[in-house]
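User: Hey, quick favor. My workstation is busy. Could you predict this chain's structure for me?
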Amino acid sequence: MTKLDSQCTMTKLDSQCTMTKLDSQCTMTKLDSQCTMTKLDSQCTMTKLDSQCTMTKLGPQCTMTKLDSQCTMTKLGSQCTMTKLGPQCTMIKLGSQCTMTKLGSQCTMIKLGSQYTITKLGSQCTMTKLGSQCTMTKLGSQCTMTKLGSQCTMTKLGSQCTMTKLGSQCTMIKLGSQCTMIKLGSQYTITKLGSQCTIIKLGSQCTIIKLGSQCTIIKLGSQYTMIKLGSQCTMTKLGSQYTITKLGSQCTIIKLGSQCTITS
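Assistant: No problem, here it is.
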């Protein structure tokens, strides 16, 4: 034991272990050529295990462990842990439920419990996951896609275009406030253009067009067409030769080919 003055004492226990006490607050213990423990006061302790690993304890709540030049782990109390892996990757854990991971300046992932996850890729792409069923992906300010389970998907492109898909059979496309198209399976399609025009298509053969409250056009295949104008006028066309026109309850015009016309 060597006493340098009233404040400084150095104690050597063997060839490996040396303890130096600088004053009542500061103690440095060297266990071997690799491990050094420095105690600055009752709150701060720094332990150096080798040239790469350093652990600093500030009071009972804060511990910082540096494993090398790339990896640093800081623990604040029992709930908060921050791990830094190189200059690009940082992971912050708040309790058992909240984790934030940052990969570079572009990618950030926040996890709240087992159900809620937010992933941000750059300034344009954000993906939010609520449980195993609901996922919302936002690409820039214009495109948003929401997925509810395996059956329902809603895609929004800007303020005007929305596409909703319910299962493999039902699709609804909305373009602005005026145009809506609903597709049920491969055979049935309803298209609405404004408040006046509706087009209904049943398979490849049947088409119904409604223009306002007065005009309806029904087309069955390539041969049959019926046009209804209000409650009084109906025109039916069968093939290229036969046409029936009814004007009110009193007048009927039948045309057979280009030569024969019957009016009653």
